[in-house]
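hiii so my PI (J.) wants the whole complex modelled not just the main chain, which honestly fair. so below is everything: two entries, each one labled with what it is. i double checked the lines twice but i was tired so who knows lol
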Amino acid sequence: METNNTLEENIKVIEGIVEKIEEGNVTLEESIILYKEGISILEKCNTKIETIEKELIIIKDQNKV
Amino acid sequence: MNQNILSVAQVNAYIKKLFEMDYIIKSVWIQGEVSNCKQHSSGHVYFTLKDANASIACVLFKGYRQSLTRDLENGMKIIANGSISVYEKTGQYQLYVKEFIEDGVGLLYMKFEALKEKLEQLGWFSEQYKKTLPYYPRKVGIVTSETGAAIQDIVNISRRRNPFIQLVLYPSLVQGVDAKNSIVEGIRYLDAMPDIDVIIVGRGGGSIEDLWSFNEEGVAKAIFEAKTPIISAVGHETDFTISDFVADLRAPTPSAAAELAIRSIEEIQSSLNYFKQKLTQQIEYRIDQKRSLIEVYKARFENYNPRHSVHQTMQYLNDLQDRLENAVFTNVKDLNNKLAFLNESLKRVSPIEKLKDGFAYITDENGNHIKSVNNLHGKETLIIQLFDGQMKAKIIEIEKGGNVYGDE
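here's the output for the full assembly
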């Protein structure tokens, strides 16, 4: 559900989850669901950082705009 | 000769009047080189401003001179501002200088200040328009020269910090008259690309003339209008340009711009790891907490375990048994003591003891105790019991009354 989020947005979501668990107003079951969600978003964050080295792109056709 | 004859003073006064009626020469900027510069003891400075073809006399009065930041020197190229009027005594017209700027650098500086003030008034430098840079840009656009040092620096820094970030260069001119348009096109081109997260606009160090394109209003406008966050990185740390003020962020150098735009991959990964750790810690903590809570309840609940009360009852029974045994033991001992005592007492009153003292126990043959002679008729056989045996005896004679031991 957070696949379209940017890395920052995802990190915000994770921060929110951590805070929610820290507050302690959630049941253990809920916190485990939150935990799983957090971990899965973290995984997504990691895959979002494409670790393929990029070459510099030089725009040649400058009449496109 | 019938015409009016005028005095020299009248002519000069008239010409002066003409000069003063002209609004153009009331305030003019004249560009030229300073020569014949003479400082009068009164504090006024007289000089000539000349260019290749002409010259004009100039005077700078003490009052204006004091408000200037530097003095005039021969050979200085200046642009002087003032009014042209006639010195009636000599009939010479001259420029009454109010202020001047040094040509070249000075002019550019003035233009810079003027544009800076204008854009500031428009609010283009205002914080409210500053866009925040993305935490993790994936595509970084760059507008600079393809051959300059700036792009090299940016590429190097970017590779080092995070080689997974895509850099897109729009090669532009960065100095000369066409640079302005080229930079504007570059900003607009990259801004129009859908996936550029941040744009770096800049060039390496140079003279103020070299960096001038970044002080052009057109460039400032393109930066201001761009939807993509823009980092301005022009020249060295000490160079400030209009682009720097209008951009979302000023970087002191192109290298610094790359540092600011591109977060290092280590930093990102360590922050992700931090969150992972924190999340795991939190959940483990919560589980531990619940677990120890369960332990507490378990311990408390244990009090109500029926096994617990059975144990207590059993222990009580054991206690009772012990008490019982003790009690019985004590009683038996008491009884034994009592018995021994009784035995002693009994011994003391026993007839056997009397027999030992020499008394006898006498019965008839049927075992009837004979205590008196009264009922005897003399023919009975008596059984005489002594302490160590018995004997049968015949009565020989009965005497009634008196002491057994007789006084006879």
